[in-house]
Amino acid sequence: MTMYAKIFNFKFNGVSEAKVAASFISDAFGKLIVTNNMRSLNISIGKCGSLSIQTKFETSEDLKSFEVSAGKVFGDLKETFVYKEAVSYTHLTLPTKA
Prior knowledge:
By secondary structure, the chain is α+β, with helices and mostly antiparallel strands. It is built from two helices and four strands. α1 (about 15-30) packs across α2.
């Protein structure tokens, strides 16, 4: 089985800003789980103001569809907060039972 993942890493000025952003993103991405066939959503906050969001999908088409929706969410976020962003993609191949 092949999975596709996208990881977003943000650095905010402090943990308080990261918490508010995590709440905003959790709400917005939670609404996208079904419509984008999201298989996994993990959000982590670091005490230094870091925020990591990991998403997983079964198909590249689902990932591409999600990227469009996520772009709108992050556009709203950029209007509210100052942060640094890094994005990475991962193509996962998971073992399957024979």
